[in-house]
Inverse folding.
């Protein structure tokens, strides 16, 4: 049942002996201790478990760990560099683009993938890209504002 | 949220150096919701400290309230920092840990700021007074000549200074709360500001710890066998296949049958192999026939309020309008499912839980395990959304039982289907309204009977001489058995979403019958100056142009009072007549909540309420067949998304002399009526049932 799976996680190589059919979500949470990636629905419907694999946002609850063999995986824990928040994290922080915070890692990771493929999205593009990530507290307006802010900060060359 | 203090036992905590302010029980009881205090006799009486000032100048504030996302961690710290004269950053909040925090009934009912806030402020003011006395002794200067900034006491005449920390160094000072003067709003430095939320950094970095994020050595993940329907009885069960899976443990204690494994997904697989036969009661009720059932099974209506004489009112009426308003069951659907982690070591039980009620939960766990409450510690982690749904914490009791049965730490994280199944829904309800207008277009008669939802804010506030409000059954228990086919409970602003939908829809219908603009019609019946001011502020912000509905513009208004907070919403919608789809374009909220502790936090609650409220107004309704819940996940139960987002504007009225009355719930109560009224204004179809789905809108358009 067990197989050795290797991939890059938050910039560092990982080698695991795991059941390849297990989902990336629970391997991250249980085997690798990265609990920032959340379980919300277990069916790819809410986006709380979103991580970025080779620059694409994926639902880790619906992704078998074998699918990331040899790929680059980034989770919420891997966004800040040298103790410095990623501009998206900084924007979410400044806009208070969260309440309970449970959907926040998935929101940030989904937005991160969006900005990787489209660094200057329009408001409509942001809304479309984020539409399948659910938030029950109703932080939507602030999340959109935070993503717009992070995108414009990147454009003007500002670090934040 | 974690501090070293958390690890101290209660005895160590009480003996540690520093200043502790103790609140007498009478003060404490006053901060709880009276209706929920039947268990008052069970108060623990030994420990009521609220805050502690340590020699290192750090202030730790211990509160029984919890952080659900509503921002109370920050707002409560602001109240304390203000009265104590310390920097907000110097305050660490420890919330909902039953071993070190004072007893609290629970975090709900917009009580944290409204009722608990004044007690916390008083504790801060008392501590400041004590520290000034100590400083006066130390500096040999009368206390009233001293000044305090950020926890440093200074004698302006000599320039000498001493910090709070130095004053308590090596001492153990304990004081009871006594009356100490509170600051006046004009001198506030921390209250009324919008500092960075205390939970911000942890939440944007993934470091915030929720109950399912707790990791303990040897911990097992549990999955529990669930009935297919409420009321189903287990006839037989075969767990042999699960027992054969390596590493899986199968346990049974009475009705609790669980499979456990260190990996969640192996436990999932094991659960799937269990063969169980259930006997199900006949399923007769569903989301369509529930309303007749409620009317049949509800207890006799109780009079909530009465004035004048209904017959006289009917006699004066030239037009009588009667309608029946309905709403279905609605789920809380927080993004975090009910989660808990439990450890049993000797006679000590520790449970990390996502709960709104840690102290009642401690009692329930103790009862379930047959141990004294003192041996149970509930530690509330961050909670991933509550909205009333985590007042019930069955998952934590399950985790504790399983930890004892297995002798290993156990984690219970419900899946989404369990979350829908065991949710304590907002009750389905029926409201009958009968109201009359005289020849001059004045309301002279109002009869309001609510079945199933509860009587909170059912009494209306418009000037009507002859009126009666009655209520039968509700969300808070005491219903005849079988009235609601499954559990119901508090859902953000319990009763009030239902009552406001019925009242404000009916007021709009009366305005239309009177041939008047809905705002003008309301103002004509409002002598409450506070409500008039809020309504006028909303109209000014919205740019309300008087017209008789339906005007075709798709604009609506709704007014409400929720536990002392005055709130008015105005909305603009577009209705697609072909599909029945509604797009909410703009919502303006004007609110008078008295003293505003944190304006940005209040705006967050307004935005959140408007977003969340679109759900119960337009799409959310639990579908069921008897005790079987047909919604299992977000594919069939649709909650609001980014693409639903209207432009949201909020006006917070300045009223700092009025007590802070809470803001987490009030803005949501208007969402049903404001959208119903805007839809009517757009297309002339009056929706009497929530949610206002496209199918129901099309039906109403066809005159159904």
């Amino acid at each position: 049942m067990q197989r050795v799976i290797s991939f890059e996680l938050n910039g560092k190589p990982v080698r695991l002996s795991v059941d390849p059919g297990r989902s990336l979500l629970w391997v991250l949470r249980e085997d690798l201790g990265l609990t920032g990636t959340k379980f919300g629905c277990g069916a790819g419907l809410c986006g709380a478990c979103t991580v970025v694999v080779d620059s694409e946002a994926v639902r880790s609850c619906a992704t078998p760990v074998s699918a990331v063999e040899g790929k680059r995986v980034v989770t919420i824990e891997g966004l800040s560099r040298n103790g410095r928040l990623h501009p998206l994290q900084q924007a979410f922080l400044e806009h208070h683009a969260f309440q309970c915070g449970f959907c926040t890692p998935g929101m940030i990771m989904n937005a991160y993938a969006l900005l990787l493929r489209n660094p200057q999205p329009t408001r409509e593009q942001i809304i479309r890209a984020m539409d399948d990530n659910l938030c029950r507290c109703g932080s939507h307006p602030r999340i959109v504002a935070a993503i717009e802010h992070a995108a414009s900060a990147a454009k003007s060359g500002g670090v934040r | 949220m974690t501090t070293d203090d958390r690890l101290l036992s209660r005895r160590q905590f009480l003996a540690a150096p520093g200043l502790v302010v103790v609140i007498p029980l009478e003060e404490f009881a006053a901060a709880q919701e009276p209706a929920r205090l039947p268990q008052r006799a069970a108060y623990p009486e030994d420990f009521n400290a609220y805050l502690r000032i340590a020699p290192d100048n750090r202030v730790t504030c211990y509160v029984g309230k919890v952080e659900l996302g509503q921002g109370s961690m920050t707002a409560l710290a602001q109240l304390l920092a203000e009265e104590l004269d310390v920097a907000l950053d110097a305050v660490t909040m420890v919330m909902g840990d039953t071993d070190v925090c004072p007893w609290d009934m629970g975090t709900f009912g917009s009580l944290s700021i409204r009722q608990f806030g004044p007690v916390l402020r008083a504790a801060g003011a008392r501590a400041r007074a004590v520290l000034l006395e100590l400083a006066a002794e130390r500096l040999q200067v009368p206390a009233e000549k001293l000044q305090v900034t950020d926890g440093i006491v200074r004698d302006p005449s000599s320039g000498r200074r001493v910090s709070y920390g130095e004053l308590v160094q090596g001492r153990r000072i304990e004081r009871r709360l006594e009356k100490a003067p509170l600051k006046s709003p004009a001198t506030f430095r921390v209250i009324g500001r919008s500092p960075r939320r205390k939970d911000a950094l942890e939440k944007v970095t993934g470091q915030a710890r929720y109950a399912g994020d707790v990791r303990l050595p040897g911990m097992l993940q549990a999955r529990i066998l669930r009935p297919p329907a409420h009321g189903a009885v287990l006839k037989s069960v075969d767990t042999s296949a699960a027992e054969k899976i390596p590493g899986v443990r199968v346990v049974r204690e009475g009705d609790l049958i669980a499979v456990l494994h260190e990996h969640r997904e192996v436990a999932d697989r094991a659960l799937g192999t269990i063969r169980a036969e259930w006997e199900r009661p006949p399923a007769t009720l569903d989301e369509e026939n529930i309303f007749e059932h409620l009317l049949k099974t509800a207890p006799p209506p109780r009079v909530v309020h009465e004035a004048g004489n209904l017959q006289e009112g009917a006699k004066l009426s030239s037009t009588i309008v009667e309608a029946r308003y309905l709403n279905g069951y609605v789920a809380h659907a927080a993004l975090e499912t009910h989660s808990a982690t439990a450890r049993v070591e000797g006679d000590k039980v520790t449970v990390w839980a996502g709960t709104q009620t840690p102290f009642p939960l401690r009692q329930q766990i103790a009862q379930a395990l047959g141990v004294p409450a003192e041996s149970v510690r509930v530690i509330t982690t961050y909670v991933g959304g509550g909205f009333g749904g985590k007042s019930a914490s069955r998952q934590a009791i399950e985790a504790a039982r399983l930890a004892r049965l297995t002798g290993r730490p156990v984690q219970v994280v419900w899946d989404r289907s369990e979350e829908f199944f065991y949710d304590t829904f907002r009750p389905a309800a029926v409201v009958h309204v009968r109201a009359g207008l005289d020849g001059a277009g004045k309301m002279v008669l109002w009869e309001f009977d609510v079945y199933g939802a509860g009587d909170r804010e059912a009494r209306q506030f418009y000037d009507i001489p002859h009126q009666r409000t009655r209520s039968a059954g509700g969300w808070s228990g005491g219903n005849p058995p079988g009235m609601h086919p499954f559990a119901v409970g508090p859902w953000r602003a319990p009763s009030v979403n239902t009552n406001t939908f019925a009242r404000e829809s009916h007021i709009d219908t009366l305005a239309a019958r009177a041939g008047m603009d809905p705002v003008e019609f309301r103002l004509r019946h409002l002598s409450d100056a506070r409500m008039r001011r809020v309504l006028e502020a909303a109209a000014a912000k919205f740019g309300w142009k008087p017209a008789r509905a339906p005007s075709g513009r798709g604009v609506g208004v709704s007014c409400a009072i929720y536990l002392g907070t005055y709130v008015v919403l105005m909305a603009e919608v577009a209705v697609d007549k072909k599909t029945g789809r509604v797009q909410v374009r703009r919502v303006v909220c004007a609110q008078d909540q008295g003293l505003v502790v944190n304006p940005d936090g209040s705006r967050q609650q307004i935005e959140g309420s408007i977003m969340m409220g679109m759900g119960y107004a337009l799409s959310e309704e639990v579908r069921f067949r008897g005790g079987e819940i047909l919604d299992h996940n977000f594919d069939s139960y649709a909650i609001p998304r980014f693409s639903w987002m209207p432009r949201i504007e909020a006006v917070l009225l300045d009223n700092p002399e009025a007590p802070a009355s809470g803001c987490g719930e009030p803005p949501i109560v208007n969402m049903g009526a404001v959208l119903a009224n805007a839809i009517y204004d757009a297309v002339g179809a009056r929706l009497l049932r929530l949610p206002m789905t496209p199918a129901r809108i099309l039906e109403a358009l066809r005159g159904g």
Q: What stands out?
A: Chain B touches chain A through 58 residues (CB under 8 Å). The CA atoms of residues 365 and 566 of chain B lie 39 Å apart.
